[in-house]
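Retro notes (design track)

What went well: tokenization of the new backbones is finally stable.
What didn't: we kept losing track of which sequence belonged to which structure.
Fix going forward: every design gets posted as structure first, then sequence, in one message. First example under the new rule, 234 residues:
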């Protein structure tokens, strides 16, 4: 009996805790509507709360609307998995073609081109209305990802002394990991405050940083590049 009472009390406390969070979300939505915002995005926390909790009475129309939102969310989540598969698969395939492309141009141009294609892919998602077109955008992202995992290391390797290759490669990796940690730390805050909860703008921000990186690539010295060696010889 005591265990049953404890479980019931804990369940009651959990329900009120969930209700408090949902109430804050609803207050936020109400404020957005009163401010004249026509497109208000409901969180799945709110949708799931009203669909799962039997304590809240809903009209059939409201329940059908929530079920439709839940269905669309699940379909979108499934499509995310497909998109990830496309860009990872394309990255694996195109990785073998990057040296060929670099042979026709050079490694800096190839890397800058790949980053630009990835940036276009990320930014274009904002304008896409047909889910199938997201797969096309992911091809650009996959190209950028393949280049990010290979060409910067190839460019850097030519400038490093062989006896300290591991040390400098490790330091270089810091500048990959630290931005990831920074993004994980502040992107949630930026999306919630500056972007008003619209995560799509985080993708646009990522695309803009890739364009910036593509431009900065051209100021890097690739000492193993034949054109660079020819200029140094002259």
């Amino acid at each position: 009996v005591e265990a049953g009472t404890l479980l019931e009390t804990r369940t009651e406390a959990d329900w009120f805790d969930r209700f408090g969070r949902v109430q804050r979300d609803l207050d936020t939505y109400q404020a957005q509507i009163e401010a004249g915002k026509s497109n208000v995005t409901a969180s799945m926390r709110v949708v799931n709360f009203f669909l799962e909790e039997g304590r809240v009475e809903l009209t059939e129309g409201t329940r059908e609307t929530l079920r439709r939102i839940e269905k669309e969310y699940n379909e979108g989540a499934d499509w995310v998995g497909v998109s990830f598969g496309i860009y990872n698969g394309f990255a694996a395939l195109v990785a073998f073609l990057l040296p060929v492309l670099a042979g026709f141009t050079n490694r800096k141009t190839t890397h800058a081109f790949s980053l630009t294609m990835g940036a276009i892919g990320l930014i274009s998602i904002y304008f896409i209305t047909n889910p199938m077109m997201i797969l096309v955008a992911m091809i650009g992202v996959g190209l950028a990802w393949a280049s990010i995992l290979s060409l910067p290391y190839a460019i850097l390797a030519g400038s490093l002394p062989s006896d300290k290759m591991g040390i400098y490669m490790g330091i270089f990796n810091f500048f990959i990991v630290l931005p990831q940690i920074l993004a994980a730390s502040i992107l949630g805050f930026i999306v919630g405050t500056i972007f008003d909860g619209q995560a799509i703008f985080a993708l646009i921000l990522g695309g803009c940083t890739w364009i910036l990186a593509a431009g900065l690539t051209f100021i890097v010295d690739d000492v193993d590049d034949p054109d660079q060696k020819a200029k140094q010889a002259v």
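Added context from the reviewer: Residues 1-57 form one domain.
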